[in-house]
């Protein structure tokens, strides 16, 4: 009756086309198995009570394995192992078995082999399969509840990473349904990587060309790759802070080429390719990591930017890839000349915006980026808004073993004694060394760096303009030539000649006593040369002239605004004066300040740290606005073609002089006694 019921079930199934290789079953010794059908309609139905002993599955195990055809053309499948037990009618109930120790042996009803029919089913999201199996136990007598053998089913096909529900039960249903859920592994399963087409990792072949690189996918499998299988190619930059995409990911089929533009042929550019399946294996290739041309292309795309903010020097390196390099400060007085390296101040490069704590801004200071012994990038402050200062000599102050300070001059890549320096021209080396030491001690030299201990010591930038007489030879010659030309022109007009002679005759005595009188000269960065010449003239006449370019060490330490207010109070308190040296551009900035307008935007994002003119306007123009600029306390000197009549109205409250024509009148005004 049972065989008839199972036969009717199989007869009602649709005819299934034969396959190239059917699943198979095998049994342990003492059992015989036969696969009746690999695709049946299955349903456990309602549990019934047997009339005699029956074979039932009592333990279910699953294991993934490969099912291969034609060598390595394999697919994943799930193997099922069942443990079989004989139960009698009294051991089978609605809730399972109820074995009793020492139960009597079971005898088949007909005295022959014990036969049973099992159903195995496997269900996944993409398929459902059932197999019918006949099992025979050849032993005539056995004990109830004892395992009599095992059955192995090869195997239910399933896709990688699928979740498969396996069930086993008898037909008819004599015992509870066994079930187990199994997760098929992905291509990370080592057995699948070498045998399954889907898990084959393609190989990348990169062929550089002058303007591009050709990337080819090469898949080496013993059989053809499925036509539906595509691959994803990802091009990215592999950096410390993470991976950066270079365009969208591309879908390719093998074999197919991909063109990589020249701009992406960099040492950190890598390629990844993988088949479009769940959890795929990947091929990773960085083809340009050791390519000399790629490294040259990287340095061509790398930028070094120096920034100055509130007297603090910082740098920023922008590079498409991580670079290993060091920063080397160097000194370049001549923009067209070489840059003398300062090896004691080198440091490793760091990503992002970084401060150079040991360095103070100076126009002659440059920063080099060196890698593998070569200078890759150079950036100088004089390339921005700071003009070079060729007359500044770089000195290094260090402490000798006895504790006394020694000075040397940085020249030709080394630090030479001051007596051997070629930068001093025709000056007396001994006397000039004494003056330079006094300038360092009095703060008239600008401190460029300071490092406690070691050979770096302290760097000072000292001006040689007032010491090296040989440099004034051309200036004197030019001045005499201009004077001769002026006298020649004046000879053409006797009346003008008489007035000029009277001016020359009256000028020395009219200047009055300037000795000790303090004069604070304020000017914009563009007028540094004129301010230095005027300051030197005032000092030659005995005045105590104060210029920010002569006091930059103190200015850097105290801040521009604090230094200006202190010098202004000192000059006005001691009966001195504040002299504004204005060009047309500086006068316009004054007018803008008086109108309350914001200053025009600076074309360079890094402002000149040594131009304190903006702070000077905030320090002195309030006195003009409050009517406290009279009485000789403030004077205005116009240069570069600026006429006193073109000054902003508020500035006309102070006496104004056009230089150089009205220099004697300016000197007389400075020498005039101040009202108490």
What attributes does this structure have?
Immunoglobulin-like, 5-stranded antiparallel sheet, alpha+beta, disordered N terminus, 5 domains, 37 strands, about 675 residues
In short:
With 676 residues, the chain is of the alpha+beta class. It contains 12 helices and 37 strands.
What would you say this structure looks like, in words?
It is a single chain. The chain has 676 residues and is of the alpha+beta class. It has five domains: 2-192, Immunoglobulin-like (Sandwich), CATH 2.60.40.2160; 200-294, Sandwich (Immunoglobulin-like), CATH 2.60.40.10; 302-383, Immunoglobulin-like (Sandwich), CATH 2.60.40; 392-472, no CATH class; 510-671, 3-Layer(aba) Sandwich (Rossmann fold). Helices cover 21% and strands 34% of the residues. The protein contains twelve helices and 37 strands. The strands form nine sheets. A five-stranded antiparallel beta sheet has the order 2-8-7-10-11, covered by helices on one side. Helix 6 (494-510) packs parallel to helix 12 (663-671). The longest helix is centred in the C-terminal third of the chain and has 19 residues, at 473-491. The N and C termini lie far apart (137 Å).
């Amino acid at each position: 009756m049972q065989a008839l019921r199972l036969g009717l079930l199989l007869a009602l199934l649709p005819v299934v086309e034969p396959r190239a290789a059917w699943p198979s079953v095998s049994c342990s010794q003492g059992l015989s198995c036969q696969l009746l059908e690999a695709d049946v309609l299955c349903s456990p139905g309602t549990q019934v009570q047997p009339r005699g002993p029956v074979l039932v599955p009592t333990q279910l195990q699953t294991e993934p394995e490969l099912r291969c055809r034609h060598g390595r053309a394999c697919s994943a499948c799930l193997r099922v192992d069942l443990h079989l037990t004989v139960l009698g009618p009294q051991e089978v109930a609605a809730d399972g078995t109820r074995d009793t120790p020492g139960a009597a042996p079971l005898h088949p009803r007909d005295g022959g082999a014990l036969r049973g029919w099992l159903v195995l089913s496997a269900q996944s999201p993409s398929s459902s399969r059932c197999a019918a199996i006949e099992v025979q136990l050849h032993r005539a007598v056995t004990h109830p509840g004892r395992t009599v053998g095992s059955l192995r089913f090869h195997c239910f096909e399933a896709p990688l990473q699928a979740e498969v529900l396996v069930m086993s039960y008898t037909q008819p249903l004599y015992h509870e349904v066994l079930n187990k859920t199994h997760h098929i592994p992905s291509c990370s399963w080592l057995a699948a990587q070498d045998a399954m087409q889907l898990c084959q990792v393609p190989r990348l072949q990169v062929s550089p060309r002058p303007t591009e690189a050709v990337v080819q996918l090469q898949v080496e499998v013993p059989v053809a790759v499925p036509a539906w299988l595509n691959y994803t190619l990802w091009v990215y930059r592999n950096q410390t802070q993470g991976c950066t995409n270079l365009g969208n990911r591309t879908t390719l089929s093998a074999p197919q080429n991909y063109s990589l533009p020249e701009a992406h042929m960099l040492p950190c550019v890598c390629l990844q390719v993988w088949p479009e399946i769940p959890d795929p294996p990947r091929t990773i290739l960085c083809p340009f990591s050791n390519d000399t041309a790629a490294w040259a292309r990287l340095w061509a795309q790398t930028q070094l930017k120096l920034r100055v903010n509130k007297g603090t020097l910082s740098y920023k390196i922008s590079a498409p890839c991580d670079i290993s390099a060091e920063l080397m400060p160097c000194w370049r007085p001549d923009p067209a000349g070489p840059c003398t390296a300062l090896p004691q101040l080198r440091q490793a490069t760091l990503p992002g915006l970084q401060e150079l704590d040991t360095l103070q801004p100076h126009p002659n200071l440059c920063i080099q980026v060196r890698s593998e012994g070569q200078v890759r990038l150079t950036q100088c402050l004089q390339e921005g808004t700071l003009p070079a200062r060729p007359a500044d000599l770089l000195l290094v102050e260090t402490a000798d073993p006895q504790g006394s300070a020694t000075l040397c001059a940085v020249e030709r890549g080394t630090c030479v004694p001051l007596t051997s320096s070629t930068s001093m021209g025709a000056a007396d080396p001994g006397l000039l060394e004494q003056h330079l030491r006094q300038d360092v001690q009095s703060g008239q030299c600008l401190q460029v760096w300071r490092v406690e201990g070691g050979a770096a010591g302290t760097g000072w930038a000292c001006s040689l303009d007032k010491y090296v007489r040989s440099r004034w030879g051309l200036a004197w010659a030019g001045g005499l030539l201009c004077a001769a030309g002026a006298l020649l022109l004046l000879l053409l007009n006797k009346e003008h000649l008489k007035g000029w002679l009277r001016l020359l005759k009256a000028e020395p005595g009219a200047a009055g006593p300037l000795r000790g009188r303090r004069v604070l000269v304020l000017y914009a960065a563009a007028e540094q040369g004129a301010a230095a010449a005027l300051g030197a003239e005032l000092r030659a006449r005995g005045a105590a002239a104060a210029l920010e370019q002569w006091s930059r060490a103190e200015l850097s330490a105290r801040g521009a605004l604090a230094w200006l207010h202190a010098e202004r109070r000192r000059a006005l308190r001691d009966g001195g004066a504040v002299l504004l040296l204005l060009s047309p551009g500086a006068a316009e900035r004054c007018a803008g300040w008086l109108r309350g307008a914001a200053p025009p935007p600076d074309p360079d994002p890094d402002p000149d740290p040594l131009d304190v003119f903006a702070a000077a306007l905030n320090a002195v123009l309030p006195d003009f606005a409050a009517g406290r600029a009279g009485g000789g306390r403030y004077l205005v000197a116009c240069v570069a073609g600026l006429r006193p009549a073109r000054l902003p109205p508020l500035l006309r409250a102070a006496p104004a002089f056009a230089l150089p024509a009205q220099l004697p009148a300016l000197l007389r005004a400075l020498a005039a006694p101040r009202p108490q």
